[in-house]
Automatic annotation (TrEMBL):
<feature type="domain" description="EAL">
    <location>
        <begin position="373"/>
        <end position="623"/>
    </location>
</feature>
<dbReference type="InterPro" id="IPR013655">
    <property type="entry name" value="PAS_fold_3"/>
</dbReference>
<dbReference type="Pfam" id="PF00563">
    <property type="entry name" value="EAL"/>
</dbReference>
<dbReference type="InterPro" id="IPR000160">
    <property type="entry name" value="GGDEF_dom"/>
</dbReference>
<dbReference type="InterPro" id="IPR029787">
    <property type="entry name" value="Nucleotide_cyclase"/>
</dbReference>
<dbReference type="InterPro" id="IPR000014">
    <property type="entry name" value="PAS"/>
</dbReference>
<dbReference type="InterPro" id="IPR035965">
    <property type="entry name" value="PAS-like_dom_sf"/>
</dbReference>
<dbReference type="InterPro" id="IPR001633">
    <property type="entry name" value="EAL_dom"/>
</dbReference>
<dbReference type="Pfam" id="PF08447">
    <property type="entry name" value="PAS_3"/>
</dbReference>
<protein>
    <submittedName>
        <fullName>Sensor domain-containing phosphodiesterase</fullName>
    </submittedName>
</protein>
<dbReference type="InterPro" id="IPR035919">
    <property type="entry name" value="EAL_sf"/>
</dbReference>
<dbReference type="GO" id="GO:0071111">
    <property type="term" value="F:cyclic-guanylate-specific phosphodiesterase activity"/>
</dbReference>
<dbReference type="InterPro" id="IPR043128">
    <property type="entry name" value="Rev_trsase/Diguanyl_cyclase"/>
</dbReference>
<dbReference type="InterPro" id="IPR050706">
    <property type="entry name" value="Cyclic-di-GMP_PDE-like"/>
</dbReference>
Length: 637
């Protein structure tokens, strides 16, 4: 059979299926020879058009259906003489399309209603809209939608919509489609990865916002990694002004001095050495195992101390000298002591150097576990017994009223020179050695004493570490303190900090329930960072949550933070819980929080912490008492 035979056959009527298959094979072979001849440069002199002879005398719907069959696509054909709303007409689909929808060919009779039932309910409206638009405009279109197969499997189908016409008027629709599940899932994955890349941001909690150096938690992890692998040396440098800094200096002045000290440390040790801020006036330097011709850890520590003692720092047009000493801890790989333990050992060694008047104290190996715990507990208990703390107040703005209606009381620790500094390193140590309850009780007693001396015309909020909730006697201690200092319970809210440290859920629930029965309220601090924070909302009778500052500090520049904050506010308000945000640094952040519906805002924009005076001042509706500062606070407090 040659090309002339094919043309003759096409004129003799309807061929059999066998003849059709043979004709297609021969036509494809002829087309291949024709293309090859053209490519080789031969002149084609046969008077014949290379077209499919099987489609020359059929209607448009059949032509589309046959083209789809050749391409292994499925078709749905709907022909109607009275428009889309003028009768049912005839609705059919090809065997390929039936299988795409999960049905065996010939097993399902189609109607418009039954076809709509096969489409995913969420996509029915979109499909109808595309079909209606194509019909009205008499223009082809395309649509991707989901179908639900009989077993419940969901597949994605992409269809091209074509409008059939009779005498210039639309008379039907042909949808040519294919299973596009793999393509659609790949597209969704590309979109997800693009969104994730846009939302992913730097870990701001890893760097101190004033110095730009790694924070205590980051350096602790680095030390822990070193002791698991290579070993090394840890230098803890303690700095404090030789004379007390005047009270006239502002927090900005303290930040300026802190940043200058950090820059000087980086200059002395070089860029290739890991260092960080580990506490108020405490700096950590992590060294890898000593290499040949490299500076020994003892020599580097001595050079740091000597350079710092000779350097004149400047603050508010005044020069400041720093009394500097260092503790050095040498450790091998695989030691039992954790990164936190080694950091504590370095701090104790630096403190010993200060007391003895020597520049450096060297520990050739980590301290024994019992000695380390005893030293930490002794330090905490001495601070509590000597009242080595101070309470500061920071205003909080009610965003609904746009006025200060609350104050948060921040705990500060007095250092050896009598200055009040941030307590985050001290409280971290107290929690690790099981002495945080002692500090909590000091804060509760002294905070309620101050509240009892002032006009109780509003509300006060006192924070308690989540670790302390495991003590079954805490509720009794709190209720006794309320009675002893004459504080009205309805004026108090107790805020639980460090919710991840809650050791006994039953005791925590008992304390929360008991506090509510007494007449006080309950709040959660650092919300959004603890692994159990959402679970706490289910069973603890919480009235207020404070979104952790890590989501607020870079809010206006981070799409991820914006998404987290807005959804947390929505969640809490749905549960009947009010929301506060800390770390508010600028007006732009404040406006965004208002738009999200946040109830309260706190940070340097709303006011910096100030020492609390006992004498009554202008009454405020709420005072909030808290035990810890966020980890980004500066070394100078």
């Amino acid at each position: 059979m040659d090309l002339d035979d094919i043309l003759t056959l096409a004129e003799t009527g309807q061929p059999s299926p066998l003849e059709l298959a043979r004709a297609r094979r021969v036509a494809r072979a002829a087309q291949g020879r024709y293309d090859q001849s053209v490519a080789d440069g031969y002149e084609i002199i046969v008077d014949a058009d290379l077209v499919d002879p099987l489609t020359t005398v059929v209607d448009e719907a059949t032509r589309v259906a046959r083209a789809a069959q050749l391409a292994k696509l499925g078709t749905i054909t709907w022909t109607t003489g009275g428009g889309m709303s003028g009768g049912f007409g005839r609705l059919t689909w090809s065997d390929e399309m039936a299988m795409i929808f999960g049905h065996a060919p010939g097993t399902l009779r189609l109607t418009p209603e039954r076809l709509a039932d096969l489409v995913h309910p969420a996509d029915v409206g979109a499909v109808r809209k595309v079909v209606r638009t194509a019909w009205d405009r008499r223009r082809p279109d395309e649509v991707t939608f989901r179908v639900i197969q009989p077993g419940g499997t969901v597949r994605h189908v992409h269809c091209h919509i074509e409008i059939l016409t009779t005498d210039g008027a639309p008379s039907g629709i042909v949808a040519t489609g294919a299973d596009a599940t793999a393509l659609e899932l790949a597209r969704q994955e590309r979109r997800r990865l693009a969104t994730r890349s846009e939302m992913l941001c730097a870990d701001l909690a890893a760097l101190d916002i004033v110095t730009g150096l790694p924070t205590r938690s980051y350096l602790t992890d680095e030390v822990d990694r070193a002791r698991r692998t290579t070993g090394g040396a840890l230098i803890v440098v303690a700095t404090e002004p030789t004379t007390r800094i005047p009270d006239a200096l502002t927090d900005e002045n303290h930040d300026q001095l802190t940043a200058e000290v950090a820059q000087h440390l980086r200059t002395v040790i070089g860029d290739g050495v890991t260092c960080g801020l580990v506490g108020p006036g405490l700096w950590g330097v992590l060294l890898a195992p000593q290499k040949e011709h490299a500076e020994a850890p003892e020599a580097l520590a001595a050079r740091i101390v000597d350079t710092f003692r000779r350097h004149l720092f400047s603050v508010q047009h005044k020069t400041v000298r720093l009394n500097t000493c260092a503790g050095l801890v040498l450790f091998e790989s695989g030691v039992v002591a954790t990164g936190f333990d080694l950091l504590i050992d370095g701090e104790h060694a630096a403190r010993d150097a200060r007391r003895s008047g020597t520049p450096i104290t060297v520990l050739n190996k980590p301290m024994a576990t019992e000695d380390r715990i005893d030293n930490c507990r002794r330090q905490v208990r001495q601070a509590v017994s000597a009242n080595g703390f101070a309470l500061y107040a920071q205003p909080i703005v009610d965003l609904r009223l746009n006025e200060v209606t609350r104050h948060e009381i921040l705990l500060r620790v007095r250092n050896d020179t009598g200055d009040s500094v941030a307590p985050w390193g001290f409280l971290d140590m107290a929690e690790r050695v099981g002495e945080i309850l002692t500090v909590d009780k000091w804060v509760i007693d002294h905070a309620l004493e101050l509240i009892g001396r002032r006009a109780q015309t509003s509300h006060y909020q006192v924070n308690i570490s989540g670790k302390s909730l495991a003590d079954p006697g805490l509720l009794t201690y709190v209720t006794e303190a309320i009675r002893r200092h004459g504080v009205r319970p309805e004026c108090l809210t107790f805020e639980i900090t460090e919710t991840t440290l809650i050791e006994n859920r039953n005791e925590a629930l008992a304390f929360a329930t008991g506090i509510r029965e007494v007449g006080c309220h309950l709040a959660l601090d650092d919300f959004g960072t603890g692994y159990g924070a959402l679970a706490h909302l289910k069973y603890l009778p919480v009235d207020l949550v404070k979104i952790d500052g890590v989501f607020v500090v870079d809010l206006c520049r981070s799409p991820a933070d914006q998404a987290v904050v807005s959804k947390l506010v929505e969640l809490c308000h749905t549960l009947g819980i009010r929301v506060a945000a800390e770390y508010v640094q600028d007006e732009e952040t404040l406006e965004f929080l208002k738009e999200c519906g946040v109830d309260f805002a706190q940070g340097y924009k709303t006011g910096r912490p100030e020492p609390i005076t006992v004498s009554p001042e202008k009454a405020v509706r709420t005072i909030e008492l808290e035990l810890r500062l966020p980890p980004q606070h500066t070394a100078m407090g």
